[in-house]
Every structure is written in structure tokens, then in C-alpha cells.
Specification:
With 269 residues, the chain is an alpha/beta fold. It is built from 11 helices and 10 strands. It has an 8-stranded mixed beta sheet with strand order 3-4-2-1-5-6-10-7, sandwiched between helices.
């Protein structure tokens, strides 16, 4: 799939499924005009946009996903220039890691988020603990850090569809294959990053789509089926995902899958 088309599918179809998660976290942490938020792996920027709408100053960093970052810039910095780090009042986006922002920008942050859900693909937390550990000293002591992950498979209808990825990707026997979320996925990442857990929550995030075509595009935009596509082909993955979606298709043609996502609040040491 064309990477730009997939990034658009993520931004226009799939990303909004996580809005209840973003809202729950922002409400619990009272994000508002006094908040200075650092978003790690900010993607196409919807979570940052929601925080900015609450009055927060937002800083986003994203490495190795230029298409999603370009969409974040369209949303948050429509008139910014062509530099690697783009800034306007209350908004800063950069292609890279927190260290690329400079000490002044990171030291001012009093909330860190890593909203890309983990706990659904083998090795999907690789690198996250290291990024968090690198960011923690830059923002200071006692700063809340939010991690997000998939809930228990029995509470996530989408798990049955994601099993297609495992079935088709098995010949690769490598990273990137779906696996059930584990109870302590988030806590293990926080521990490796040297963070102190300080609360958690669960949020209903149903996946709702206008039709099956819309659902297939949205789900494939997540990257969770990449290994399956590599092991077979796009046509085979599309076919089997459509079949797996059949139980969730409603009479009017829409697709509805109840899911629960989990978040962990940890604090820098």
C-alpha cells in the first residue's frame, strides 16, 4: 500500500477510534491552559490537536513516520515553513527524538504522552522504554508519563480480526505478528524506563466504520497486518480480514466492534 494513502487512512478513518482514550486521560490529568505537553510518537497529531483545543501548549516528536508527521503539520502548523522543527505559538513539531528539541523545550514540559497502543504485536514495545528513559531526565522529576495499550482480548472484539495477522504471518516467525495483550505490558515498559507507576484506567474505544471497505482500510492503516502482507499478499489479507469482519457487520452495512483500551500513568524519578 502506498505509504501516503495509508497515512491518510489512519488520520481520516482509524485514529478517531482512540478519541475516548485521549479524552479520558486529559480529563483525569486536567489538561488545560497551564499544561505543557510532550507527545512521543505523535503520529498525525489528533491527540495533540485535542490538547491544544483545551488550551495546552503542545510539543510533538515523531521519528521514522514522515507521512504521519506531515499530516500532523497540516493539522497543527498549516502555515509553518520547511524546517525540520516547525513552531508556532503553543505548538512545536519535530522529526526525530526528544533530544532533538533542545533542553529548553523539553524542560518546560509537565506531561508526557506515548499514546501509540502497545501490547498487540510481538515486540511492539521495543524502543519505547528506551525513548521514555531518554526523555525522562529532560523533563525533570515527578512528571506524569502516560502509556497506552490494548485491553484484555476478551474485552476487545477486534482481537478476533487481528488473529488473521497471526495466521497469515506465521511463516515469517518474526517480529510484527499479532499476539494477545498481557496484563502487565504497560507496567513492564514503565519499569524498564525507570518510571514509577501512579495509577491506571480502562476506556471503551469501540471501532465503528461506515462499511466493510472502510473497516479494511482503517485496520490495515495500523500496520498490524504488515507482516501478514509480507508473508502472503495484499489481496489475501484483504479477503481474510473481510471474512473476519462479517460477525460485526450490522444490518445497515456499518461495522461495529466494542473494545477496551488501557492506560498507565507513571512518573519520572
Amino acid at each position: 500500500m502506498d505509504p501516503w494513502a495509508r497515512a491518510r487512512d489512519w488520520a481520516e478513518i482509524q485514529e478517531r477510534m482512540l478519541v475516548p482514550l485521549y479524552e479520558a486521560v486529559y480529563e483525569r490529568l486536567e489538561v488545560g491552559s497551564s499544561t505543557r505537553l510532550l507527545g512521543l510518537g505523535c503520529g498525525s497529531g489528533l491527540a495533540l490537536l485535542m490538547a491544544a483545543a483545551r488550551g495546552a501548549s503542545v510539543t510533538g516528536v515523531q521519528a521514522r513516520a514522515p507521512e504521519r508527521l506531515a499530516l500532523a503539520r497540516e493539522r497543527l502548523l498549516p502555515e509553518a515553513g520547511g524546517t525540520r522543527t516547525r513552531v508556532r505559538a503553543g505548538v512545536r513539531l519535530t522529526d526525530g527524538e526528544p533530544a532533538d528539541l533542545g533542553d529548553a523545550a523539553t524542560a518546560a514540559c509537565d506531561l508526557v504522552t506515548a499514546f501509540e497502543p502497545i501490547g498487540c504485536v510481538a515486540d511492539d514495545s521495543d524502543g519505547l522504554a528506551e525513548s521514555l528513559a531518554a526523555a525522562a531526565p529532560l523533563v525533570g522529576r515527578g512528571v506524569p508519563v502516560v502509556l497506552a495499550g490494548w485491553g484484555p482480548p476478551e474485552r476487545c472484539a477486534t482481537s478476533s480480526v487481528l488473529r488473521v495477522a497471526t495466521k497469515l504471518a506465521d511463516p515469517l516467525r518474526g517480529a510484527g505478528r499479532w499476539r494477545p495483550a498481557l496484563r502487565d505490558d504497560l507496567e513492564e515498559v514503565a519499569q524498564r524506563a525507570g518510571l514509577r507507576p501512579d495509577g491506571s484506567g480502562r476506556v471503551a474505544c469501540p471501532f465503528g466504520y461506515a462499511d466493510v471497505d472502510n473497516a479494511v482500510r482503517g485496520l490495515l492503516s495500523t500496520g498490524l497486518f504488515d507482516a501478514a502482507v509480507a508473508a502472503t499478499d495484499q489481496e489475501q489479507v484483504d479477503k481474510e480480514v473481510r471474512e473476519a469482519l462479517h460477525p460485526y457487520r450490522r444490518g445497515d452495512g456499518t461495522v461495529w466492534m466494542p473494545n477496551v483500551f488501557r492506560y498507565l500513568i507513571a512518573r519520572t524519578a
